[in-house]
Design goal:
nine-stranded mixed sheet; 14 helices; 381 residues; alpha+beta; 41% helix
């Protein structure tokens, strides 16, 4: 079954929250129109309805639509009453079944939907923690929390639903917690965590050990060393990584499960003669392989550029003013499902269009949209 058809089958299994016998439109019709229209560029309820009206004849090839296209208020109400956990489960099951073996590096990071909050009304912006497959660019799962300070709890709730065996999990400093490292290793994964001020004794121990090692040219430490050089747009950036085996005698390291490596990454940037540098220290349960750990560290930031930036620029997520909690959460999940759909069908040939460009083409050309979904045959959903 194609990813699009499999997704539709999972959406069809979502429990209808409405009162039986008092519904005018089928739930799967509403969810399908919402999905198709967001894929075509819709940013809100009104645009979902307008897209449905413009494409009603084509939609009737797949949907029953017993009472025509649902109005924007109907679509909004469905997103308000639908339990976000159902759509979250749909995303998790869909990616897990369609792409079960793609998670070599899993980046976990948080993001707020800024437009969902209101200082005047005392409403905090919705915050969520997302697990992202850095190589494929797919969203694996997400966990919501009321604010950034609750990210640790959200990460702890997110990890058990992920398939971590054989994966390297990267998290920024907030995720450097013994319990989180324990959960990752117990589930067959490895961790790469930043040692910073939120774990001061760990950070100091790692920094001191690596500083002494560097001062003595890493003598007797059997270091793994790897360096990259990137040049372009008037910028020269060097990344120098040293990974060494974690020593047994440092008591501060004993709390961290299956810890194998201490890592030092120095980034030097030269922009038009202005040189700046930054040094980062990390710990990992993976073997001290500098090339692998440096690449994993770089891939962690794919969640910023490949997911957060794409959601804000292409899907205008931060500009969304949907403020009712369920509706905000469900709309956010729908955006991530749509992004996954686009990335599951990479373009062939020399011309590789961006996600934004492909979304525009889907809005202009329904044939292209339904081809992305692989719903080209006339089969009822």
């Amino acid at each position: 079954m194609s990813p699009g058809k499999h997704l539709i089958s999972l959406l069809s299994a979502i429990e209808d929250p409405r009162v039986v016998g008092r519904t005018w439109h089928k739930l799967i019709d509403i969810l399908s129109i919402a999905l198709f229209s967001v894929l075509a560029g819709a940013q809100g309820w009104d645009e979902m309805e307008e897209w449905g009206i413009a494409n009603e004849a084509r939609l009737r090839q797949y949907l029953e639509l017993p009472h025509g296209i649902p109005g924007h208020d109907t679509i909004r109400r469905i997103f308000e009453v639908l339990d976000p956990k159902q759509l979250d489960a749909c995303l998790l099951n869909w990616v897990g079944q369609v792409c079960p073996d793609l998670h070599s590096v899993i980046a976990i990071d948080g993001k707020s939907v800024r437009g969902s909050g209101s200082h005047a009304k005392g409403v905090r912006a919705l915050h969520s923690v997302t697990a992202y497959a850095s190589l494929s660019g797919l969203v694996l799962a997400q966990q919501r929390c009321e604010e950034k300070s609750n990210e640790i709890t959200a990460i702890e709730a997110l990890l058990p639903v992920l398939s971590l065996k054989g994966s390297l999990v990267t998290i920024d400093a907030i995720g450097t917690q013994v319990a989180i490292a324990q959960e990752i290793t117990e589930r067959g994964g490895d961790y790469l965590l930043v040692a910073k001020d939120n774990q001061p004794s760990l950070a100091q121990a790692v920094e001191d050990y690596m500083r002494i090692g560097k001062a003595h040219d890493w003598a007797h430490m059997n270091p793994s060393i790897f360096e990259t050089l990137d040049k372009g747009h008037g910028r020269l950036e060097t990344r120098h990584c040293v990974a060494v085996a974690a020593p047994d005698y440092l008591s501060e390291l004993h709390r961290w499960p299956k810890l194998k490596s201490l890592v030092r990454i120095e980034r030097t940037r030269d922009i038009a003669g202005q040189v700046s540098s930054q040094t980062q220290y990390l710990i990992s349960s993976a073997a001290p392989d500098a090339r692998y750990l440096l690449e994993a560290s770089r891939m962690h930031w794919a969640i910023e550029n490949g997911l957060h930036h794409c959601l804000d620029v292409t899907f205008r997520e931060d500009a969304s003013t949907v403020r009712l909690r369920n509706a905000t959460a469900n709309f956010a999940t729908l955006r991530r499902i749509t992004l996954n759909l686009l990335r599951m069908r990479p373009e062939s040939g020399k011309k590789k269009r961006s996600v934004a460009a492909r979304r525009k083409v889907a809005g202009w050309n329904p044939d292209y949209l339904f081809e992305l979904l692989q719903l080209t045959t006339l089969q009822r959903i």
